[in-house]
């Protein structure tokens, strides 16, 4: 069997994150510029669905090689759990940021007509919503909690040994559902970066090649970097120490789904 080399793993993280940004920032561009349907044709649901399926497709492409971290917060959590070597994890993070940069470039090239006609609009990176610009604690707390839930959900979904995980080829779809839930429920205040590469790579592209002057004009750019890194580690350790110990051991039977006892009972005359 051919072994995965580090270069192959880095390629998977690069291409997976690039795909994530092409379809994630792509849906934002579609909504912000209202390219086809006009301003009333799109809404926040469009954005959250687009990002959810962007995650799903990226994982299906890269998941068989690295498990598709495509997120430095996920990689840092793996490093702290010693499931990946620190230097390998750092290399993953670099590949993820570069992939996100290239993904933003592809979106920019695809939507050139809008950038030329309507001028630069931020479709690349997150920002606080109106009313949240000065709520620094809330900004960090929202990104920490969003990524906490993301990693917690991912660890629960992929745990087919002790938890009620899905079939092997369905877990990317369930991770997409997790991202959708986070976006719909907690994404408002900060735009739910929940991924430092997803924000930093496109932010760098916007500043260096797209003529954006606002991305690094204040300290907010640190929020979608620091917040997710803290939240991702917290989510992984929460699952390891406050969920996993209470799950059945691999030799014990997994509990039946809710209502299974009723469904299995014979019908009464």
List the helices and strands and how they pair.
Elements (H helix, E strand, L loop, with lengths): L5 H28 L10 H23 L5 H9 L5 H25 L1 H7 L17 H23 L12 H16 L9 H13 L14 H20 L17 H5 L5
Give start-end ranges of low-pLDDT stretches: 259-269
Taking all Cα atoms into account, the compactness measure Rg is 20 Å
Q: How many β-strand runs?
A: 0
Give me the secondary-structure category: mainly alpha
Number of domains: 1
Fraction in beta strands: under 5%
CATH top level is Mainly Alpha
Order of helices and strands: HHHHHHHHHH
The best one-word shape is globular
Number of helices: 10
Question: For the report, how would you describe the main beta sheet?
Answer: none
Whole-Å distance between the termini? 58 Å
Helix content: 55-70%
In the CATH hierarchy, the third-tier topology is known as Glycerol uptake facilitator protein
Provide the residue-averaged pLDDT. 91
Q: Give me the CATH superfamily.
A: Glycerol uptake facilitator protein
Using the 3D structure, state the CATH architecture: Up-down Bundle
């Amino acid at each position: 069997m051919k072994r995965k080399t580090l270069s192959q793993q880095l390629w998977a993280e690069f291409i997976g994150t690039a795909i994530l940004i092409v379809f994630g920032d792509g849906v934002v561009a579609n909504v912000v510029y209202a390219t086809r349907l006009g301003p009333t044709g799109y809404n926040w649901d469009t954005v959250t669905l687009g990002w959810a399926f962007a995650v799903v497709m990226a994982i299906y492409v890269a998941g068989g090689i690295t498990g598709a971290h495509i997120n430095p917060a996920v990689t840092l959590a793996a490093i702290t759990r010693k499931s990946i070597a620190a230097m390998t994890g750092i290399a993953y993070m670099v590949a993820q940021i570069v992939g996100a940069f290239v993904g933003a470039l592809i979106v920019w090239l695809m939507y050139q007509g809008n950038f030329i006609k309507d001028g630069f609009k931020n479709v690349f990176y997150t920002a606080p919503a109106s009313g949240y610009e000065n709520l620094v604690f809330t900004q960090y707390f929202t990104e920490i909690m969003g990524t906490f839930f993301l990693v917690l959900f991912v660890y629960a979904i992929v745990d087919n040994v002790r938890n009620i995980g899905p079939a092997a080829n369905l877990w990317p779809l369930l991770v997409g559902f997790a991202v959708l839930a986070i976006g719909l429920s907690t994404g408002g205040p900060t735009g739910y970066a929940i991924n430092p590469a997803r924000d930093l790579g496109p932010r760098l592209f916007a500043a260096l090649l797209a003529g954006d002057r606002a991305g690094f004009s204040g300290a907010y750019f640190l929020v979608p970097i620091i917040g997710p890194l803290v939240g991702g580690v917290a989510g992984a350790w929460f699952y390891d120490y406050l969920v996993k110990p209470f799950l059945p051991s691999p030799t014990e039977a997994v509990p039946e789904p809710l209502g299974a006892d009723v469904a299995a009972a014979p019908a009464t005359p």
